[in-house]
Design goal:
alpha/beta, 2 domains, 290 residues, Rossmann fold, single chain, 9% strand
Length: 290
Amino acid sequence: MVTPLQIYLLAQSRELFELPGLGLSPDRYAVHIARTLEEAVAWLSNRNHPMDCLVLEATMVTEDLRQRLRDDGVLLPVVVLVSPNTLPVLETTAPRLEPWMATYHGAVVTLPMDQLHQLDGTIRQAIDRFLQLSAASCSLPPLPSPVSLPSPDLLTAQQERLTEKLNARLGYLGVYYKRNSDHFLRNMSQPDRETLLCQLRADYRKIILGYFANDAALNQNIDSFVNQAFMADISVSHIVEIHMDLMDEFSKQLKLEGRSEEILLDYRLTLIDVIAHLCEMYRRSIPREP
């Protein structure tokens, strides 16, 4: 499973608490909520549960918060939510946010609360800015304990941790970008196409033979087949065709042996399983709109 990004929300507005998970996809984000500064700082300071991004309501952007984060060595990308319907908040946030950023760090991004549908992209923007920060842009003290993080430099340690997590989280996405359309089945020469389909038939036959035989390599064989189909942009209809051709072959063999063909109906589960794996790979890998 891909580990979701841990988002911490510090806010007071009722509308934010009534929106489950801030509208973020639960398979990509885990949202933790606090209403008070004390509750937030206590959680954020717990290095056993490191957060990946802090989302703040504009009214929570205070010197007290900045000082507490600084003193506790908490360094995170930040998204500030601003209410466009509250003019005084808009007027006071900008001048208050600039020095707050200057004494914390520059990876702070603002987002109007009526544009929460763009929060996913804004979080990524804040993280991108955070990963580009230099130590000179942050005024936080050294780590209070060198054991709690792998580097004596807080910014470097946080950037490395977040980079590793993003690499793991976007692993499927990386596979998507590695696809080469020249290697898609529809763009292959006829000999290459026949070679690939022959290989897929052989691999699928191996899956069929091991599906009800407690084959320890079954999952690996399915993953290999699905990965090959994915990289070649094989359609589901092609997989169904491979399955039906193989069932016809087995049916003829069973008839020659005088055995019932009913057993072949059970292998519909194999087809469903393989297609489900392929659909899941597409779901996790295709880039989503912000």
